[in-house]
Amino acid sequence: MSCTPLHISTFRNPIHTNRATQPRPTSRHGSPRTSLTQPPPPPPPPPPQNPDPITAITRLLWGKSLPPQLLISTVRSTWSATWHLMMSQLAPSDPSGSYTRPTSQFRSKSSLGQSPDTALHLYVGLPCPWAHRTLIVRSLKGLEDTVPVSIASPGIDGSWEFLDTTVRVGDYPNPGPDTANGCKTLREVYKLRRGGYDGRSTVPMLWDAKRKEVVCNESYDIIELFNSGLNRSAGNPDLDLSPPSFKTRIDEWNQIIYPRVNNGVYRCGFAQSQEAYDIAVNELFSTLELLDEHLGGARYLCGDTLTLADICLFTTLIRFDPVYNVLFKCTRKKLIEYQNLHGYMRDIYQIPKVAATCNLGAIMDGYYKILFPLNPGNIRPSMPSCCEHEVLSDPHNRETLSLVENNVQVYA
Ligand SMILES: N[C@@H](CCC(=O)N[C@@H](CS)C(=O)NCC(=O)O)C(=O)O
């Protein structure tokens, strides 16, 4: 692709811009002033005394300004090589360039039950859709007292860290300190386990504070445990998000939704070749079309009953327009363009206690500020108006799709 002078001017260091290229003063209506009585513009500021090393080397080699074509080709090749290096470590891919998500290290299929020998503690991060699943099921099941939570915040290097105090913003959960172990980073918490740990320190992570052990760091196992394994101390034990008669259908939906939508958006965003992206984006949008059609005739994925499959789909949908549509190049459509899917998302958002788990500001901050390889300029776009709480609270009228009156009952 050739670069037009317009592109080149974007890269020019303003310190070295001569007066001829500076914008001329404009009148109130935007047209350049031509008055001869206009005082001359002030001279450009002098170059800094101690320029940064890159600027210093550049000046030494090429004088005051690097030839634009050279600047672009140099930056392009070094950035491209560095980008592939970073991506191969942060988002491993197969030989075709398709993102392959690493598997979780700690799986717990066995229900812990209510053993008095366990003291569960949940570690989450607000941007993370997998962690968000656990926050929602914890709230719906009324497990806030049984499973206290510590909310990590994404550090500048992409790892999870804890703040000294919680700064309350809005009626949402906010990042704060590690109230179980007093650690500064999630990595330190993982390392506290007997035998230590050297793998990825991911959220969500369920910790047993009595045994000082990682119970599980796979979101689906954690939500299954929250749904049925802790009913003796749950505030809402009667809510079953995975009734035995629905298990097969829930599994069938998960097998479609996980690879094509939940992980599908990541496969778009982390693709390292055009082919890998094309495959991921086609699978994602063909599945969204299928879901939109299905949800035109059913209130939830499995009919009238909210299940774990809906929670898993919801946490991706709520991030779609503010994040994935832009940052992960899921651009074919916005979620708001899907009438049924968007109504379905609002239906779940409006279930009592769910909106309170959705901190969209923290979600946007997390993705745009932390996924440096995808957003090196570090600029967070403004929140799309369709993601404001007022819009998400718009009536959805999806009760009419239920054969029985079946609003999810949530107890405080
Ligand atoms: N399969 C895991 C995925 C968890 C995951 O990838 N979490 C990300 C945040 S969205 C993380 O903590 N990444 C940190 C890292 O890889 O070091 C689950 O569903 O729980």
What does this structure look like?
- With 412 residues, the chain is mainly alpha-helical.
- Among the domains are: 120-233, Glutaredoxin, CATH 3.40.30.10; 244-401, Glutathione S-transferase Yfyf (Class Pi), Chain A, domain 2.
- Helix content is 38%, strand content 5%.
- It contains 13 helices and five strands.
- The chain has helices at 5-11, 53-62, 68-90, 129-140, 186-192, 219-228, 247-262, 264-269, 274-294, 308-327, 339-349, 360-370, 389-392, and strands at residues 120-125, 149-154, 160-161, 205-208, 213-216.
- A five-stranded mixed beta sheet has the order 3-2-1-4-5, with helices on both faces.
- Strand 1 (120-125), helix 4 (129-140) and strand 2 form a beta-alpha-beta unit.
- Helix 4 packs parallel to helix 6 (219-228), helix 4 (129-140) runs antiparallel to helix 10 (308-327) and helix 10 (308-327) packs across helix 11 (339-349).
- The protein is globular and about 75 Å long.
- Mean pLDDT is 85; it is low at 1-35.
- The structure holds glutathione (GSH).
- Residues 104, 128, 130, 159, 200-204, 218-219 line the site of glutathione (GSH).
- Residues 243-385 form the GST C-terminal domain.
